[in-house]
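Q&A FORM
Asked by: J.P.
Topic: structure of DUF4843 domain-containing protein

PROVIDED:
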Amino acid sequence: MKYVIGILFGICLLAGCEKNEVPAYSDCDKVYFYERRPNQYNASVIERAEEVSYSFATKSSTLTEGRLEIKVRLQGRVDKERDRIVRAEVIADSTTAIEGTHYRLEEGVIKAGEYEGVLPLTFYRTSDMKEETFRIKLRIADSDDLKAGLEEDAYIRVWVSDILIRPNNWPQWYGFGEYSPNKYRFVLDVLGIEDFPVLGRWDTGYEEGKFATGQLWAFAYQLQEAYKEYRAEYGPIYMDDDADPKVEISFND
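REPLIED BY: S.T.
REPLY: Here is the structure written out as tokens.
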């Protein structure tokens, strides 16, 4: 009798384990936009970026198409066996850009074994971008692989133009000072760098495309010296040519 009861108990345990096994894919696997940048006042504080931008004005005049990769992150378990598709949808009543004319939205991917990926946007350079900055508002959409994740990170605004616009990361508090298009144009001419993401508090060591605060201060000094030479030969550059009174650009203040 005890032997029979023991067998029945073992069968029940096995059945319970099978019922509680977690499948390779679960409705709990989600994805969200993961654009982050250091706080402009304190680089150790990382903030959510509600918008990103792309400008053809910083590119070659012969470039007709551009590409922006928006970061996404997994909310759930990493799948080590297969890539997973990430989808987004355009919120029409909050979008001024025209799909097929100004941009093309593509599927993104989180590769097998990774917990971050990208959602690509392709932009088409059009003549009206020289007069207007267009907006695209995106929302994470469910795919067969991943559902929409964190509500506060389910949306992002994207700006595109052929006008010189403020980069996603402008190091105002690291010697660059207040932004203006004229100042940014000088920065591009001297450094050839379009954006200045800062290494955050939790970044460890070198990371391509990011700068330590010391590097930014060194850039500011380099810009200051370059501007002295430029001014001596060509005269001052103003923050705004139409302002009254006019204020010169400056660095390392």
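FOLLOW-UP: DSSP finds three helices and twelve strands in the chain.
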